[in-house]
Amino acid sequence: MPTLYVTEPGAVVRRRAGSLIVTCEESNSSSEKGEDDLKSLLLEVEPHRLEMIGLVGRVHMTAEATRMCLDKGIAVSWISRRGALLGRLVPELSRTADLRLHQFRTIENTASAMELGRCFIDAKLANAVALLSTIRSNRPREPRFAEAIKHLGRLRERISITTDREVLLGFEGEGAARYFSVLGLAFSGDIEFETRRRRPPPDPANALLSLGYVLLTNLIANILEARGFDPYLGVLHTPRSGRPSLALDMMEEFRHPLVDRFVLRLCNRRQFRPDCFETDPKTSGIRLKRDSLKRFFREWEAMLDTRMAGLDESVTVEQGLRRQIDRLAAHIRGHEPYRALLLRGAE
After folding, report:
1. Which fold has domain 98-332?
2. 316 by DSSP, 3-state: which?
3. pLDDT, tens digit, for every residue of 129-140?
4. Where are any strands of DSSP class E within 26-173?
5. 2, 22, 174, 299: which is deepest, by most CB within 10 A?
6. pLDDT confidence of residue 29
7. Which fold has domain 3-89?
8. Could you tell me where the beta strands, DSSP code E, fall in the chain?
């Protein structure tokens, strides 16, 4: 359980001796009962088992618990009930400044930044091709997969010679639109997908995708910061207050093989159905009901600890993420060229 997501409304993360506990006020408690009796214990966990705590919705953390997290190297993230990342608290970790200096120099050098940017976007499209090819093998009579795969292949050829950042981002947007135009053909359960829409997500499939992308971005940002990077300075996504641009850059090659495949599996196995969702009263978008949200977090954590599908080597999803960040560090230090994570059939 490297990440603990606390979703119970009114829950409080507290410190008790050498452990972290999660308590919740009992709504029907008698006023004659003592303070300890007024709180029900939901969970107790030793801090060495955690790397991050996610506080979802109306959840609180005491000052003593916060200090313990900082002391034990546990990052804390605040996530809104509709799945938006509100902020992160990251412990002060031992790190050297040289990696950030190399990062700044890479960003300032247009040619170096474009080299990395092309690599990230090419990997994104290559993995999109690999995933669509896998899906196509189960639907050989559907011509739209072959058309989309050819289109993405042509975009990759154009990306390889692109030297302008805006043009590169345009190709990325075109590729994403083409990919999502056929992804709905892969949904075979009770949940359907037409096209990618967000802010707010208007349907269950988009709600699941958006939540998955938020969790993945948060995880990558935490790993980057622990490694010594500045997650807010990227090569593709321009700096913006509160936006972890480098994490968003790195996420591109993982979007389709991790989040999209994960959401497809949940929907096609009917682990999530339309009745697992509700309308968000604040945005009029669609979000998971509370019990279903808890189940989504459990499935997400289990997925991170499983072997990454589509690779010839055996590494877990989280190991794959950490290895790519180590490769990025080696690249910007000039030790070796960055090698993107590519699924089988993406080369």
Report:
1. Four Helix Bundle (Hemerythrin (Met), subunit A) (1.20.120)
2. strand
3. 999 998 888 777
4. 39-45, 52-56, 60-61, 75-79, 85-89
5. 22
6. 46
7. Ribosomal Protein L15; Chain: K; domain 2 (3.100.10)
8. 3-6, 12-16, 19-25, 39-45, 52-56, 60-61, 75-79, 85-89, 277-279, 286-288
